[in-house]
């Protein structure tokens, strides 16, 4: 691209520093938020179960994702399903990040955050909306949950609803176990599920 | 399939700022043009065809925003003896090159910015600026030749070939 010394010199002369670019990006994020065209804001936070990606629309927290899901892949899915107008904008996630920190510190047992359930629908949404009713520190079986949502034979569908929960940790699908006490599956991996259950048991 | 806009910013932020700086000079006007460019791009992004050339699209927007900033600058122009440069501080040695770039005819400066910094082929530069492919090529070549006369360092003294 820069095939003359003069062009090369101009390239170096106009080269921005990382700090200058960071300042411009902050300004862009603020302006986009102000104009209401930041459809999805996200950030990542460090937790005892690894890095979590948090994403929120204007309506509320829309996605919590474990590192093993691949944060880039998760963002791409959000771009396709919700909107490609996605920017890293930690401010919108301040409350969610703080409450999740408190949860892992053992000082918070319920979340008080606006949630955007637009990634779920139908029976899955019905199940996911029921999950916060399972009390902190206790567990239920997939079978019990199926009965509670009024469809006792839909045990597999309940399992799928938990496995596809877009808001793990905050919507506590980790509190659902197999009838024999086995862990079942978990979007964040069985180590993460065990860690969350132990955290709640210890509190 | 469209990427999250964050990726677009990540990949093209520096390029667009270089273009804005080359066209407007290294002060806050370039920062303003950069902000306006990405804000306009974010606004229009969902409607952009998936196979669009992102860099060309952004440089085209930056071109329009640079014109807006230039017009705005003329409207608020206040005659003073010395213009305070609210600039990102520049290395002392490079003032000469900035000066030379600033004195290039508008079309030459933009052609050089869009081609050498923005990475657009001359055909696309011609589309943005008007005129023919050959004229864009000539403008770039003339501009680079002028810079070569004004801007002499050890490395540029060694340059003998014509710019391609």
Summarize the model shown.
Chain A: Its EC number is 2.1.1.63. The complex is a heterodimer of chains A (203) and B (164). With 203 residues, chain A is an alpha/beta fold.
Can you tell me the CATH architecture of the largest domain in chain A? 2-Layer Sandwich
- Distance linking N and C termini of chain B: 36 Å
Q: Helix/strand/pairing class of chain A, anyone?
A: alpha/beta
CATH class of the largest domain in chain A: Alpha Beta
Radius of gyration computed on alpha carbons of chain B: 17 Å
Subcellular location (chain A): Cytoplasm
InterPro entries (chain A): MethylDNA_cys_MeTrfase_AS, MethylDNA_cys_MeTrfase_DNA-bd, MethylDNA_cys_MeTrfase_DNAb, MethylG_MeTrfase_N, MGMT, MGMT_N_sf, WH-like_DNA-bd_sf
GO molecular function, one term (chain A): methylated-DNA-[protein]-cysteine S-methyltransferase activity
Domain Methylguanine DNA methyltransferase ribonuclease-like (chain A): 41-116
């Amino acid at each position: 691209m820069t095939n003359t010394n003069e062009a090369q010199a101009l390239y170096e002369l106009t080269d921005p520093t990382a700090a200058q670019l960071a300042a411009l990006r902050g300004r862009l994020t603020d302006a986009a938020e102000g104009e209401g065209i930041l459809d999805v804001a996200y950030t990542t936070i460090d937790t005892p179960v690894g890095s979590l990606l948090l994403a929120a629309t204007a309506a509320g927290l829309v996605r919590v994702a474990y590192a093993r899901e691949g944060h880039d892949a998760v963002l791409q899915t959000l771009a396709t399903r919700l909107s490609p107008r996605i920017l890293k904008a930690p401010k919108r996630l301040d409350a969610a990040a703080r409450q999740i920190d408190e949860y892992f510190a053992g000082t918070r047992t319920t979340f008080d955050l606006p949630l955007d359930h637009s990634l779920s629908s139908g029976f899955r949404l019905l199940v996911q909306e029921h999950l916060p009713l399972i009390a902190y520190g206790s567990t239920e079986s997939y079978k019990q949950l199926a009965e509670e949502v009024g469809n006792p034979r839909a045990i597999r569908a309940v399992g799928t609803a938990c496995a596809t929960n877009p808001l793990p940790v905050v919507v506590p699908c980790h509190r659902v176990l197999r009838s024999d006490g086995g862990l079942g599956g978990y979007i964040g991996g069985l180590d993460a599920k065990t860690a969350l259950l132990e955290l709640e048991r210890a509190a | 399939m469209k990427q999250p806009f964050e990726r677009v910013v990540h990949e093209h932020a520096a390029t667009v700022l270089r273009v804005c700086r080359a066209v407007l000079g290294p002060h806050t006007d370039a920062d303003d043009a950069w902000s306006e460019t990405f804000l306009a791009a974010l606004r229009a992004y969902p409607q952009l065809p998936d196979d669009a050339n992102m860099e060309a699209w952004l440089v085209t927007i930056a071109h329009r925003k640079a014109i807006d900033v230039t017009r705005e600058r003329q409207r608020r122009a206040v005659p003073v003896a010395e213009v305070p440069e609210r600039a990102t501080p520049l290395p002392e040695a490079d003032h000469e090159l900035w000066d030379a770039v600033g004195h290039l005819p508008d079309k030459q400066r933009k052609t050089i910015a869009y081609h050498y910094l923005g990475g657009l082929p001359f055909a696309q530069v011609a589309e943005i600026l008007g005129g023919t492919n050959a004229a864009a090529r000539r403008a770039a070549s003339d501009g680079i030749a002028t810079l070569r006369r004004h801007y002499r360092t050890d490395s540029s003294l060694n340059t003998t070939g014509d710019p391609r």
